[in-house]
Design brief:
Structural class: mainly beta
Organism: Chengkuizengella axinellae
Oligomer: single chain
Largest sheet: 14 strands, mixed
InterPro entries: Phage_tail_spike_N, Prophage_tail_N, Tail_dom
Number of helices: 7
Strand content: 35-45%
Number of domains: 6
Helix content: under 10%
Radius of gyration: 33 Å
Pfam families: Prophage_tail, Prophage_tailD1
Shape: elongated
Number of strands: 54
Protein name: Phage tail protein
C-alpha cells in the first residue's frame, strides 16, 4: 500500500498500527512560526477508528502529528472529527530546570544548549550575530521561541529536527488578477500602527544616552499621518542602551505600517504552472491587482492550507506588506517599455512621474516602507544580493610624506652602553637632542645583538627576536657623534618592556620612522542597505589620514576599513592585525554595508591574507610603506548582482579568451575583466605549448561562483571542476571559497611544472574598475630558488 496516499496511525510508543484508508477531508494547516495542524474525518463505525487514541500518533506525508481531539463531527453524526498537532508540541513537556547563560552567544550556541537534554535535534542554523542570552525554568519550546524572536528569524521543524533561519525563498511566482487570482480577501486595520515609539529596558533603562537625549524614536512613515501614533515597549531583559535601541528599532519596523493580509485561493494557479507543492511556507511572492490599485513585491506566505489526498486546492495567506500607488505601478512598467502607455491609462501626469524617475526616486515599497524597485525600473526581486548599485569606490589622494632622513653607523662601539656615543656618517639633519621613538637603527633579523644585563646575546632568528628596529635617543650632538645616546630594544607585546643595546657595529642603517599621510576618498554612491532600503549617499573625504603601522607592529600591517552604517554614515576606522591571526577586518555593526578595506604598512604582501613578521624596506633602509585597497572575500565589497529576464545582464563580454604569462618566483595575481553583474564563470585553463591539448587531456575546467552580497542566495562562493595533469591523472576540484584554501586549487602537475600551483581563483570587483567583476587567478611558486615561466590560455564563459 502506498504510504504517501494514506494516513498512518501509530500507538503512543510510535508503533505503526495500520492505514486510515477511510479518512476524508484531510487538511494540513501551517502557519509561519506558529502551529502546524492536521485534521480529518473518519466514519464512527469503521474498524480503523479502533486504533485512534488521544496522544497517539498520525503520520501524514512522512510527518508526525499527535492526536489531541477525537469528537463527533458537527455536521455529520456518523463521523469523528480528529484534530492533531505536529510532534514539535512535545517540547512543551520538556523543561529546562537549569540556567543557560551566554554573554554573548550565537543563535546556534543558544539552540544547542536548549536542546542539550531534549529528544529533538538541531539540524540547521543560518543566523548570524551574537547576543546576551539568559534562560531558565522554561519549556524547551518557549526557549526556542524566545531566541527566534531575539534573532528575528524563523523556527520550523521536520518531525523532531529543528531549524532556525529564514524559511522559504523568492521563486519568482506572480499572482495576478485575471491570470491566476480568482479570490482575494484583504482584511486590514490601522489600529496597531506606531510611528513614535518610547523604548524602556530593565529597571527603567532608556535609550537617551544613545539617541541624542530622546527616549523615543520616529518611523520614516511618521509624516503619513496628521499626528504621531505613539506607543511604548518594555524590553525587560535588556540592560545595555545600545542593544535596547537596536531592538526597539526592530520592533518599530514591524509596527509602523498598516498590517495587511491577503488570502489567495489556488483556483487557477495550477493552470499557470504553480501547483501547490511549488509554493511553500515562508516563500516570497509578487501580487498584482490593478482594479485595487495594488502592486506588491516580497509578500511572504504566512499560512498554507492544503488537502494532500484530494484534488481540492487550498489557499495561502500573504502578509506583512503594504499597498502601492498608481505611480508605483507606472515605475514598474517603465522598464518594460510601456511607460507612456501606463501613464495615459492611469491618468498619471507623465512629466511629473518622469521627473521623479530621472531624479532616482523609487516607488514600490515593502512592509517597512522601503523601496523594492529602483530608478532603473529594476525589480529587486530579481537581485541575488543587496549592496552597492553604483559608485562607492575608494581612492587615495594627496599622498605625502616628509623627507626620509637616512644615514649609517660609521664606527663600531663595543661599549655604547657606558660611554653613550654613537657615530654616524651625517648628523646635519638631526635635532640637537631627541627623546622620542621615531629614530631607529635596523639590525637584520638574522644577526646577533647584545643587550643588558651583562652583555647578553640574542641570536638572530630565535623565538625571542620580535623586531629588527631599535629606537635611539640622545641628549647632545658633537660633529658626527650623538652624545648621551641610548639604543633600546622594545618588546612588541609590551611597550613598557625595553632593554638597552650594549654594543653597536658600523655599517648599520640609521633612519627616521616617517609614515605617509593621505586623503581617503569615497565616491558618491547609490546603495540598497541590508534592510532593503535604497539610498543615495553623498561621498566623503577623510583628510590627512596617517597611513602605515607603528615601528614595533608585529607584522608591519594595519587595517583601515570603510563601511556605511545603519544611520547612512560613511565610517572610516583603523584596526590592528595579529600576525596572520586575522585574515580580514572584523565585521562592521549589524545593519552596515561594507565598502572595502585597506591594508597599510610595510609588512610582507601575501594575496591569501596570511601575514608574517617579515618587513619590507627601501634601498636606503627606510620602511617601504604602501597601501592596498581590497574588495575581495576578506572584506566583501557588497555590490549588486543584477538579473533581467532571468539572464544576468548589465554589460560585459560573456565569452572571452586571453593568454597570460606565468613567471613565478613567489605569488603572482592576474585580474581578467568579465564585466558588470557577473556571478559565475566557466573557465578553461590549458597550456599553449603547441601540443594542442584541450582541458580534457591536459589542463582544467573550473566553474567559479561569486558570493552574493550578504550571501543572499545562500550559495557561498563555490569552485567545482575537473582536471587532467601532465602525467595523465584526472581528478576533481571542489570547494567553498568562503575561506582560504590551505594549500592550492590546482597542483603544479596540471601545468606540467614542479613548483607552481594555482593558489586562488575568485570572482571579485576589478581593482581598477570596481564596478565590474573580474576573474582573479593567483599562482604560487613554493620553491625559494626556482622561477618557472610558462603561458596559459584562459577561456571563459561568464554569466
Amino acid at each position: 500500500m502506498d504510504s504517501d496516499k494514506y494516513l498512518i496511525v501509530l500507538d503512543r510508543q510510535e508503533k505503526p498500527l495500520g492505514y486510515l484508508t477511510k479518512a476524508i477531508n484531510v487538511e494540513v494547516r501551517e502557519r509561519l512560526n506558529q502551529e502546524v495542524l492536521l485534521s480529518f474525518e473518519i466514519p464512527l463505525d469503521d474498524d480503523e477508528t479502533n486504533h485512534l487514541e488521544h496522544e497517539g500518533y498520525i503520520t501524514c506525508e512522512s510527518k508526525k502529528y499527535i492526536i489531541k481531539s477525537i469528537e463527533p463531527s458537527s455536521n455529520q453524526s456518523t463521523r469523528y472529527q480528529v484534530q492533531c498537532t505536529h510532534v514539535y508540541i512535545e517540547m512543551l513537556d520538556e523543561y529546562i530546570d537549569r540556567t543557560i547563560e551566554l554573554i554573548p552567544g550565537t543563535c546556534q550556541e543558544a539552540a544547542e544548549e536548549i536542546l542539550l537534554d531534549s529528544e529533538f535535534t538541531l539540524s540547521h542554523v543560518d543566523v548570524s550575530g551574537s547576543k546576551d542570552i539568559e534562560i531558565s525554568e522554561i519549556s524547551v519550546l518557549k526557549a526556542l521561541q524566545n531566541i527566534r524572536e531575539k534573532w528575528d528569524c524563523d523556527l520550523w521543524f521536520n518531525n523532531r529536527n529543528v531549524y532556525l533561519g529564514k524559511k522559504g525563498i523568492n521563486k519568482g511566482v506572480e499572482i495576478r488578477y485575471g491570470k491566476n487570482l480568482k479570490a482575494l480577501r484583504s482584511p486590514s486595520s490601522s489600529n496597531d500602527v506606531i510611528t513614535r515609539l518610547y523604548i524602556y529596558g530593565q529597571d527603567g533603562l532608556t535609550i537617551e544616552s544613545e539617541n541624542n537625549g530622546l527616549k523615543y524614536i520616529d518611523s520614516p512613515n511618521i509624516g503619513l499621518y496628521r499626528k504621531p501614533k505613539i506607543a511604548s515597549v518594555k524590553l525587560n531583559d535588556i540592560t545595555d542602551p545600545v542593544e535596547l535601541l537596536e531592538e526597539g528599532a526592530k520592533y518599530l519596523r514591524k509596527h509602523d505600517t498598516i498590517q495587511v493580509s491577503y488570502q489567495v485561493d489556488f483556483v487557477e494557479l495550477a493552470k499557470q504552472g504553480y501547483e501547490g507543492e511549488d509554493i511553500e511556507l515562508g516563500d516570497e511572492l509578487t501580487l498584482t491587482h490593478l482594479p485595487l490599485n495594488l502592486q506588491t513585491i516580497g509578500a511572504r506566505v504566512v499560512e498554507y492550507v492544503r488537502y494532500p489526498f484530494a484534488p481540492k486546492l487550498g489557499y495561502i495567506t500573504l502578509s506583512s506588506f503594504v499597498e502601492s500607488t498608481i505611480d508605483d505601478y507606472v515605475s514598474l512598467k517603465k522598464r518594460q517599455g510601456s511607460f507612456e502607455e501606463y501613464s495615459d491609462k492611469r491618468n498619471v501626469e507623465y512629466s511629473e512621474t518622469k521627473k521623479k524617475v530621472d531624479n532616482g526616486e523609487i516607488y514600490i515599497k515593502d512592509k517597512y516602507g522601503q523601496v523594492v524597485v529602483n530608478e532603473e525600473g529594476l525589480n529587486l526581486e530579481e537581485i541575488a544580493g543587496f549592496g552597492i548599485i553604483q559608485g562607492g569606490t575608494i581612492s587615495i589622494e594627496n599622498r605625502s610624506q616628509e623627507p626620509v632622513i637616512t644615514t649609517t653607523v660609521t664606527s663600531t662601539n663595543n661599549n655604547v652602553f657606558n660611554d653613550e656615543i654613537l657615530t654616524l656618517a651625517d648628523t646635519s639633519g638631526l635635532p640637537e637632542s631627541y627623546s622620542g621613538k621615531d629614530y631607529f637603527i635596523r639590525i637584520p633579523i638574522d644577526e646577533d645583538f647584545y643587550i643588558e644585563p651583562h652583555d647578553r646575546v640574542f641570536s638572530g632568528g630565535i623565538i625571542g627576536r620580535l623586531t629588527e628596529n631599535f629606537f635611539v635617543t640622545w641628549t647632545g650632538k658633537n660633529g658626527n657623534k650623538l652624545t648621551g645616546a641610548k639604543i633600546y630594544w622594545q618588546s612588541i607585546f609590551d611597550s613598557s618592556h625595553t632593554l638597552r643595546l650594549t654594543r653597536i657595529r658600523s655599517g648599520l642603517t640609521f633612519s627616521k620612522f616617517v609614515r605617509p599621510r593621505a586623503d581617503v576618498v569615497v565616491s558618491d554612491m547609490a546603495v540598497i542597505m541590508p534592510n532593503q532600503s535604497k539610498h543615495v549617499i553623498q561621498g566623503k573625504r577623510f583628510d590627512n589620514q596617517l597611513f602605515g603601522c607603528g615601528m614595533y607592529d608585529f607584522d608591519g600591517w594595519e587595517y583601515r576599513k570603510l563601511y556605511v552604517n545603519s544611520d547612512l554614515e560613511i565610517k572610516y576606522e583603523s584596526e590592528g592585525t595579529s600576525g596572520g591571526g586575522l585574515e580580514y577586518p572584523s565585521n562592521p555593526p549589524d545593519g552596515s554595508l561594507r565598502l572595502g578595506y585597506m591594508l597599510v604598512g610595510y609588512g610582507f604582501e601575501s594575496p591569501d591574507g596570511d601575514l608574517s613578521i617579515e618587513k619590507t624596506y627601501n634601498s636606503d633602509g627606510s620602511p617601504a610603506f604602501k597601501e592596498r585597497i581590497y574588495h575581495d572575500n576578506r572584506y566583501r565589497d557588497e555590490r549588486l548582482i543584477r538579473a533581467s529576464d532571468n539572464e544576468l545582464a548589465f554589460g560585459g563580454t560573456p565569452y572571452g579568451s586571453e593568454i597570460i604569462n606565468v613567471n613565478t618566483s613567489n605569488y603572482q595575481t592576474y585580474y581578467i575583466n568579465l564585466g558588470k553583474g557577473k556571478r559565475s564563470a566557466s573557465v578553461s585553463i590549458t597550456r599553449t605549448d603547441g601540443s594542442e591539448f584541450d582541458n580534457y587531456s591536459y589542463g582544467a575546467n573550473l566553474v567559479i561562483g561569486r558570493k552574493a552580497a550578504n550571501n543572499a542566495d545562500n550559495l557561498g562562493r563555490s569552485i567545482w571542476g575537473t582536471y587532467v595533469d601532465s602525467s595523465g591523472n584526472a581528478g576533481q576540484v571542489t570547494g567553498r571559497r568562503q575561506d582560504n584554501y590551505t594549500q592550492y586549487i590546482l597542483d603544479s602537475k596540471v601545468f606540467g611544472k614542479s613548483y607552481t600551483y594555482l593558489y586562488d581563483a575568485d570572482l571579485m570587483p576589478h581593482p581598477e574598475e570596481p564596478e565590474t567583476i573580474s576573474l582573479k587567478l593567483t599562482f604560487y611558486n613554493r620553491s625559494s630558488s626556482s622561477t618557472e615561466n610558462f603561458d596559459l590560455k584562459i577561456t571563459w564563459h561568464a554569466l
